[in-house]
Amino acid sequence: MAPVLAMIVLIGVYPKPFLDRMGPSLSTVVQRVQQANTTSTLSLGAK
Fold it and tell me: In Å, what is the CA distance from 41 to each residue of 7, 27, 38, 44, 47?
């Protein structure tokens, strides 16, 4: 239980290394979602 609590505190105090590792993946997901929203908006407007 102590290692889990230590990780919780570490992530809360110094989250930058964890956020930096997630950045590229999140950028890809955001880009895909935006592209899907644009595509669906365009197809809805065509009706």
Answer: 42, 21, 5, 5, 11
